[in-house]
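Customer escalation, tier 2.

The customer says the design service returned an amino acid string that "doesn't look like it belongs to this structure." They asked us to rerun it and document both sides in this ticket. The original structure tokens are below, unchanged.
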């Protein structure tokens, strides 16, 4: 798996704590640096055949045709794509003009992840999104016209501006389209964001946990009615239309992340790149492969057995496939079984053979349950 972080946005959403810049001045230089990083680090993955490529951000739909073509040329030089590889590009509705969609259709991109967030103008303004409500609908309709039948949209629930009635309307609009995949996230007030400052100074209301719980419940009910499988806490898909790239994340598959702030995982350690565009560009202009580990481009954390177990618990229980007890390293099996008894008794966990899954009620407490199952000794 290959992840490419494109750290540019037209404007800053109030809730976002990802690494990005609203200045596009360095975009071309950063694409060159990203290609250089690919050249220097393509041996990170033992398997050079890619089942998926994911352009995240930021706003990857800000890449122009030549920049995207240059990145794909580099991918072809250093990796081999599976014949049916999933190639996803995150996009904002205001970028998806007919001309842009034609360009993307003629590229290797075969899946879009569209940041709708809401179909209501009041929500979009409160989040400081760059698009308008009419563009949210238009981009889906245009993507379908241009032949993109594999796409996902993002929606946000739990915002103080989103009434229960509006959330239901957002879902109704979404499910009126032939939508194969939906990602829905609860609004979270992250530190050092504009939203955190607004809440602290009384300019914005905090998230109402009861409202968020109600809207999550509505989400599960309406998605099931529309034929979606709730295959991960925040993700819903029509049968067989799961996001392959993200599913492999949750199943602990290795991946290489390129670009400022991008993370990589090889099964035993994690790496994360520095989150500074100018420094990232400078380092990759002047660093040779043999000096890369000491260059300051990235940090490495070697995972202990306990950390690997904790991550296995956290990611596996978020999915419909659950956690196979036999796949837990032997030294943690007894701890898991003992810790799980409380949640089996409360019916927040269900056991089927050697597999443990969250029940419908357990999904409301997913993070708490995972934390209680962690090994902290």
């Amino acid at each position: 798996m290959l992840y490419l972080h494109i750290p540019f946005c037209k404007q800053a959403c109030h809730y976002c704590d990802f690494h990005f810049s609203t200045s596009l001045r360095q975009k071309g230089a950063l694409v060159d640096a990203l290609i250089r990083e690919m050249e220097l680090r393509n041996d990170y993955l033992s398997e050079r055949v890619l089942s998926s490529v994911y352009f995240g951000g930021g706003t990857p739909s800000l890449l122009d045709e030549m920049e995207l073509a240059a990145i794909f040329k580099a991918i072809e030089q250093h990796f081999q794509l599976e014949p049916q590889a999933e190639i996803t590009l995150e996009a904002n509705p205001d970028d998806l003009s007919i001309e842009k969609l034609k360009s993307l259709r003629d590229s290797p991109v075969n899946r879009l992840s569209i940041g709708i967030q809401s179909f209501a103008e009041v929500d979009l303004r409160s989040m400081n999104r760059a698009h308008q409500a009419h563009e949210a609908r238009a981009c889906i309709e245009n993507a379908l016209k241009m032949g993109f039948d594999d796409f996902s949209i993002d929606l946000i629930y739990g915002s103080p501006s989103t009434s229960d009635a509006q959330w239901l309307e957002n879902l109704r609009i979404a499910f009126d389209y032939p939508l194969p995949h939906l990602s829905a996230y609860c609004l979270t007030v992250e530190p050092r964001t504009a939203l955190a400052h607004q809440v602290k100074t009384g300019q914005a209301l905090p998230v109402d946990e009861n409202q968020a719980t109600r809207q999550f419940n509505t989400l599960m009910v309406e998605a099931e009615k529309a034929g979606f499988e709730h295959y991960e806490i925040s993700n819903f898909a029509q049968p067989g239309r799961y996001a392959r790239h993200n599913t492999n994340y949750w199943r602990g598959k290795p991946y290489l992340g390129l670009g400022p702030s991008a993370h990589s995982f090889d099964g035993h350690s994690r790496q994360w790149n520095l989150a500074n565009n100018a420094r990232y560009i400078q380092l990759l202009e002047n660093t040779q492969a043999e000096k890369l580990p000491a260059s300051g481009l990235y940090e490495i954390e070697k995972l202990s057995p306990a950390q690997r177990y904790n991550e296995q618990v956290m990611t596996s229980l978020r999915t419909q496939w659950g956690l196979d007890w036999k796949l837990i390293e032997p030294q943690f099996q007894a701890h898991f079984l003992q810790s799980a008894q409380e949640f089996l008794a409360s019916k927040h966990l269900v056991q089927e053979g050697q597999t443990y899954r969250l029940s419908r009620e357990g999904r409301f407490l997913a993070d708490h349950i995972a934390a209680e199952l962690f090994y902290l000794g």
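Tier 2 assessment: The sequence is consistent with the input. The first strand starts at residue 2 and ends at 6. The first helix runs from residue 27 to 41. Sent an explanation to the customer and offered a walkthrough call.
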